[in-house]
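Limitations

Structures in this collection are predictions, not experimental determinations, and the ligand pose is part of the prediction. Treat each record accordingly. The example that follows, with zinc ion as the small molecule, is included so readers can see exactly what is and is not provided: the inputs are given verbatim, and the output is the predicted complex.
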Amino acid sequence: MSWSQLAPTRDTRDGAAAIAPSLLSADFSRLAEEIRDVEAAGADFLHLDVMDGHFVPNITFGPVLIEGVREVTEMPFDAHLMIENPDKYIPAFAKAGADIITIHVETSTDVKRDLQMIRDAGKHPGITLNPDTPLESLIDYFGDIDLLLVMSVFPGFSGQSFMPEVLSKVQAAKKIRDEDGLEFAIEIDGGIDIDTSKHARAAGVDIMVSGSTVFGSKDYAETIRALRVG
Ligand code: DX5
Ligand code: ZN
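Predicted complex:
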């Protein structure tokens, strides 16, 4: 499955990246409005940060919220599961309306099984890794995924500083993907702003998550445009 099918409306200009605003940085007293606003501003995906208070030191939301906001927007839902034992919850996130379901290699007890569970549920499997986890830990799974998420902060909170050293993982993954004729999308998550987005795009990312930069800005459309093409 080519990743372009994940976001059929995306900007396909050379070097342009798709943008996935993270709902975690939205104003939660106006969630529906915030989602409609980023969609109207040109966002390609809605990134949903699910945290369990075990794998990461923060708790956010689960399938109930995702199901609730599913009817608000046409944007594909990009669910990032920062939770222990993801296999227990994959069916619930699939049912709630997640389109991409991304698990952490650090938390899964059987990565192949979990990616297949996501595929069997009719969803796009993604895998991700913390900044200090080597890319080699994913080598067996590149053929099983539609999305590789490279974390550019330690997961847990929005608003942290970008870690440029992870860009070598983006470059290495892109090389493997292209040499092996694979088609997974490469996404980056954490600390993306107007400046760091340039480095991420230059390294070859296809999708950039942005929490605080998009939702903290006055003009979502202008910010998304600037992140997308620089
Ligand atoms: C971090 C989350 C990120 C975060 C991004 O644990 O996975 O998606 O919300 O927020 P910014 O863009 O503010 O770093
Ligand atoms: Zn995330």
